[in-house]
Amino acid sequence: MPGQASATSQAPSMASPEAQETGAAPAEGSQVDAGAEKMGAPASPHQRSWLVRHFSLLLRRDRQAQKAGQLFSGLLALNVVFLGGAFICSMIFNNVAITLGDVWILLAVLKALSLLWLLYFAARTTRHPRAVLYHDPHAGPIWVRGSLVLFGSCTICLNIFRVGYDVSHIHCKSQLELIFPVIEMIFIGVQTWVLWKHCKDCVQIQTNFTRCGLMLTLATDLLLWVLAVTNDSMHREIEAELNALMENFFGNDTNTCLCLNATVCEVFQRGYLMLYPFSTEYCLICCAVLFVMWKNVSRRLAPHTDTHPGTPPFRLHGAIFGPLLGLLALVAGVCVFVLFQIEASGPTIARQYFTLYYAFYIAVLPSMSLACLAGTAIHGLEERELDTLKNPTRSLDVVLLMGAALGQMGIAYFSIVAIVATRPHELLNRLILAYSLLLILQHIAQNLFIIEGLHRRPLWETASEHPAGKREAEPPRRGSLLELGQDLRRASLAYIHSYSHLNWKRRALKEISLFLILCNITLWMMPAFGIHPEFENGLEQEFYGYRTWFTIVNFGLPLGVFYRMHSVGGLVEVYLEA
Fold this sequence. Notes:
By secondary structure, the protein is mainly α. It has 2 domains: 61-296, no CATH class; 320-457 and 492-577, no CATH class. It is built from 19 helices and 2 strands. The chain has helices at residues 2-18, 25-38, 45-93, 100-127, 142-168, 179-198, 207-230, 233-249, 262-296, 321-344, 351-381, 392-421, 427-454, 459-473, 481-499, 503-528, 533-536, 539-544, 546-577, and strands at 132-135, 201-203. A two-stranded antiparallel ribbon has the order 1-2. α1 packs antiparallel against α2, α6 (179-198) packs parallel to α9 and α7 runs antiparallel to α9. Its main location: membrane. One of its GO terms (cellular component) is plasma membrane. Residues 1-45 are annotated as: Disordered. The chain crosses the membrane at residues 71-97, 103-122, 142-163, 178-196, 274-294, 314-342, 354-378, 398-420, 512-532, 544-563.
C-alpha cells in the first residue's frame, strides 16, 4: 500500500508537464505505469484508464482549439480576398461605378490595418519571454529572406519612380494619388523587417489573434498581387503619352496630360516598367512566408529539432562538369540578355533578336530536361530512405513548386494555340512553338527531380542517427573511453562501407544539381530584369487582344520568375543532401 500510494501521488506530478506537449499523452501514461511497476506497486486498470482519458481529453481540446483558430482565420482571409476581388473585378468590367481610386482606398485601409498588426506582433513577441519557445529550422532559409529584401527594395524603388512620375504630372493629376505609393512603401518596409526577423517563430501566445493577423496580411499581399496582374492603367498612360508626343511632333494637338520635363519622365517611365515584375514577385514570396508562419503558430517541436541538424556547408566536392556547363549557359544567357536589352532600347526590335532569344532557350531547355531525367533515374537507384516525417515547410515547397510552374506553362499553352491557329509555317513561329513545348517538358522533368530529392533523407542526417540508433538498441553499460572510441570507430567504418558504393551516384547528383542551379539562375535573370519577348513579339497580343494578353503575361511571368528562384533553393537542398 505505501508503494501504491507513492506511485499514485507521483503520477500527476509526472503527467502535468508532459500534458503540454502535443502527441505525448499515451506514451507518458505507459511510462508512469512502467515506473510504478518498477517501484513494486502494480498500477490498477482504473488508474491507467483515468490517465489515458485525462491526457486524451487535453490533447483533443488542444487540437480542437487549433483547428477552430485556423478555420476562423482562414475564413477571415477568404472574405477579405473575396471583397477585394469583387472591387477589382468591378473596376475592370464597370469602370464608371468602381474606379481605380476606390480600389486604392480599400487596399490602403487593409495595408494600414496590417501595418498596425505587424508592429504590435513584433513588439509583443520581443517583450514577452515565452512568446516564442521554438523555431522552425526549415522555415525562412537565407535565400528566401534574401529574396524578400531584394524584391522589397525593388518594389520600394518602383513606388519611388511612381511618385516621381506623378509629381512630374502634378499639374493635371490629383495630389491624393501621391498618398497611396507612400503608404505602400511604409507597409513594404515594415513587413520585410518583420518577416526577416520572425519567419522562423512558432508563436505560443495569443494564437488566435496571431493567426488572424497573419491571414489579414496574407490577404492584403494577395490582393496587391491580383491588382498588379490585372491593372494596366500605368502602362496605358505611358503608351498614350508616347502617342501624344508623336502627334505633337507632327503638329496635331491632343488633350493627353504631358510631362513637364521629358527627360526626367523617360527615366521614371523606364524605371517603372523595368521594376514592375518585382512587385508581383515580392507579394508572392510574402504570401508563402506568411503561410508558413501561420502553420507554425502554436506548433511545438521536439528539443533536438529546434536546432538545425548539422547541415554541411556548400562545397563543390570535386564537381567539374556541372559547374562548367552551367557557367557556359550563364555566359551565353548574359550575352543574349545584353544584346536584347540594347535592341529593346530602340523603337522596334528586329526579328533576328527574337530568333536569337528563342534559339538560346531551345539549346538550353533540352539539356536541362535530360539532366533532370537522369537525376530522377539516379534517385530511383539510390538506397536512401524516404523522409516521411510531417514537415509543413517542405509540403509548402512542393505546392509552391507545382503552382508556380503553372505560370510559364500557361503562357506556353496559350502561345501554342495562337501559333497553330495563325501562321505555324514561319521560322520565328516554329521557334516559338518548339520553345513552348520544350518549356512544358522541362518544368515537368525538373519538378520530378526536385520533389524526389526533397523527400529523400539526407546522408548527413542518416550518418548522425546511425550510431545513435545502435547505442539505443544496446543495453546501457559503463565502459572505458577506449571502448567508447572503438565503438565509434566501428560505427564509422560500417557507415563508410555502407555508402561507399553510392559515391558515383552522389557525385552525379551533385554535378546535375549544380548545372541546374546555374541554368535556373540564367533563366531567372533574363525575364526578371526586363526581357519579355512573349509580350513584345506581337503574335499573341494580336491574336488574343491587348487587355487579355496583358493579364495572361502579368499572371504567368511573375510566377515563372518565382518558379526559377524557388527551384534554385530546392536544388541547393538536393545538392546538400546528396
